[in-house]
Amino acid sequence: MSVLVVGISHNTAPVALLERLAMSREELPKLVHDAASCEHVTEATVIATCNRLELYADVDRFHGSVEELSSLLVDRAGETTGAMLPHLYVHYDDGAVSHLFQVAAGLDSMAVGEGQILGQTREALRLGQEVGTVGPALNVLFQQALRVGKRSRAETDIDRAAPSLVSAALERVSGTGDVRAAVAGKRVVVVGAGAMAGLATATVARSGAESIVVANRSAERAARLAEEYGARSAVLADLPDELAEADLVVTCAGATGVLVTADMIASRPEQRPIALVDLALPHDIDPAAADLPGVTLVDLSSLAEALHASEAGREVEEVRRIVTQEVNAFVAARRSASVTPTVVALRTMATSVVDAEMTRLDQRLPDLDAATRAEVLHAVRRVADKLLHEPTVRVKELANETGAVSYAAALAELFALDPEAVTAVTRPEGLT
């Protein structure tokens, strides 16, 4: 089996296309089930964020599974295959391992090094485990990816050197690269109550906002987040009134349909300047609001280029070194493990031969005393071990070189090992 990734992200697609692919938490289990139901897929899960949608699968065939998984994203986007393919990317086997480790470490994020992706990677693992589509292969891979992400942040300052999406957007609003300049003394409205909204609320709270209102469809969730930061809560129905008093609006809801319309902004009683930050997919703020006088609009599209140019130099290179090291170690361990069933089957066969020969000896020499028989058994086992030692050691060494699978196959062929005996070594209990 091999790991396959089929995905689309801010690196390959415009925001308008990513918006059509955006999924709510309630929709994700169906996509995971659909992926796992593909003919050549044995395990599956999905990483879904505001700027990426990636299907991860353990597959038994490359070409068929690529077509099946790609079609799920094509159908979701409502595009033709020809229109979608230039925006999709595929990573296979070692490349898939490398990609996931880079994602978890924050190297592939719009804001390089941002910390939210680690939680989103953990959520992908949890989702697959909950719906029963993550098995041994993806579980080991994702657990290691989470360790890589944690190590990258523990051993480098990548999370402090690289801005979050919220910080980067506010820096852009200020025009000076200073978050506090965009927030201090301002009346702020945060729309949404999820993880990104929580980050936004925390950021404006510590940056000197005069007042903060958290608006959300669920009054209970809005109140919970607002209470944590000494803010006031509101429901979406109150949004026009809250906008009338706001200097800065940060939206993170990703709801179906626009929440902040151009008319809401245009009808504010005082036409003083207002900054709008839209961090949602699909977008929460009508792009037409940017054309109104006194309005500054920052969204994911305008952030992408600026964030790409601000990669945190030395820290990024250090994280890349860590990721490369971890990928090499993981791939080496996986390749070594791939020959283990063959080695175990070979030694099991040798044990069977020794046992059969000792049975023949017992039949031919029934009066052989126990001490002599024990010496003969010990000698025969030592001969078998010595004969097998070199080929089993060498096949493990060769496992980390190109063609590792063929070396294991050659060993099985040379010793005429039963394929079923090899398969049985790793077959989960209860499966046939």
Could you characterize the architecture of this molecule?
- The protein has 432 residues and is an alpha/beta fold.
- 57% of the residues lie in helices and 13% in strands.
- It has a 6-stranded parallel beta sheet, with helices on both faces. A 4-stranded antiparallel beta sheet has the order 2-3-1-4.
- Helix 5 (94-105) packs across helix 7 (136-155) and helix 6 runs antiparallel to helix 7.
- The chain starts with a strand and ends in a 6-residue tail after the last helix.
- Mean pLDDT is 86; it is low at 426-432.
Helix content: 55-70%
Main β-sheet description:
6 strands, parallel
Radius of gyration: 29 Å
Overall pLDDT score? 86
Shape: elongated
Structural class: alpha/beta
Instruction: Strand order, main sheet: write it out.
Output: 7-6-5-8-9-10
Low-pLDDT stretches = 426-432
Q: Total helix count?
A: 19
* Share of β-strand residues: 5-15%
Element string (H = helix, E = strand):
EHHEEHHEHHHHHHEHEHEHEHEEHHHHH
Distance between the termini: 17 Å
Number of strands: 10
